[in-house]
Batch of 2 targets.
Target 1
Amino acid sequence: MKFTVNSFAAAKENGEKITMLTAYDYTTAKIEDESGIDSILVGDSLGMVMLGYEDTLAVTVDDMIHHAKAVRRGAKNALVVVDMPFMSYQTSVYDAVKNAGRIIKETGADAVKLEGGVKFREHIRAIVDASIPVMGHIGMTPQSVNAFGGFKVQGKTYERASKVLADAKAVEDAGAFAVVLECVPDKLSAYITEQLNIPTIGIGAGGKCDGQVLVYQDALAMYGDFTPKFAKTFADVGAAMRGGIEGYIKEVKSSAFPSAEHTFKIDDEVLNKIKGCGK
Ligand code: KIV
């Protein structure tokens, strides 16, 4: 069954947790979709885990579209959300609508996500008015890494916690269908989850959110450069890949691969004729 923005609302209403993982390519999206994930995020984290940048700032709208098209082809039932990258919406409300429209038209995705609360209320409202569902993203917003002075938990002091709460309310008032809370203390995100009518999707925000999202390379131990405290390893795919690749190298070097079962045959008669022609 196709998961839609209405399914997000129904899940909150019925107290059912929403599951979301990132994907950036066809094969991974297909595996996640077939495994029954509710929603797939084509995150701008692709800058780090797919493209090898140190942060998400260099990612372009074209990068997002390229990866989101592949994910869309692999995801039949999951709701596909695509991140609006740095400077694709911050510059003006007009740019926000134009780039959100381009992402949806060119990829066939279901929704866009953008970072920020109170400051981007008008941007969110204008995109929603253009009939494009928006997921908000507040708390530790990676596109503001330089302004925050690093990837830091947000909302520990009274001032910061009030800002996170105000951002959450602004995102809801602007018409977003859900909001990601990233690196927010668990009791604060539990309170925000109670206060909002739209679902909260947590990443490093505790167990009381209406759903959870993780970067799949973090969940499957594939990205060794940095593992956030909130990420749990659900399967050591990284180790399985390394083992498989080492096995391949060993067997090619020793000529154990390919063996007869992986080899195509030709009739000796045909071969002899070819050899005869070659003389
Ligand atoms: O880009 C991303 O993967 C994200 C998640 C961390 C929520 O925004």
Note: DSSP finds twelve helices and eight strands in the chain.
Target 2
Amino acid sequence: MSILPIIKLPDPLLRQVSDPIERVDDEVRKLADDMLATMYGAPGVGLAAIQVGIARRMLVLDVGGEGEPDQPLVMINPEIIKLGGAMRSYEEGCLSIPDVRIDIERPSSVEVRYIDRDGELRTLNATGLLATAVQHEIDHLNGKLIIDFLSRLKRDIIVRRFKKQAKDLA
Ligand code: NI
């Protein structure tokens, strides 16, 4: 397994809508495994393929707590079937927007249909942190980022800061 470089704001790829995966083959399984290694290494609780520069509809998640055994989830072509429950606010971060945390309200339960690493169609009912993380990662597949929940003014301040950092590093 390899750790892949994670792209960061303001990389325009983060705004691209990812394409469905036609077939779960060895290449897709390898990407899933590399994405899991990259997520655990970061460390983070979720990662979408576009964050390693690949515009395909796949994400990985593990919201297990510290000291708990790994609970890796691989979702291919995930689709939200139902959103429900009360709105819940959670302070979200993103591996592509380091050191930024934003309070975001989202539905507290979600039903999602996806294809797993073995190519099986599955349905998951998620609540709590998992429900938040699934919605966050599916947003990535549609080119949406946590800064989009902010006012335009606040969003522009963050984007400008990351543009300047990228320029200083270049
Ligand atoms: Ni993210």
Note: The two ends are 29 Å apart (CA to CA).
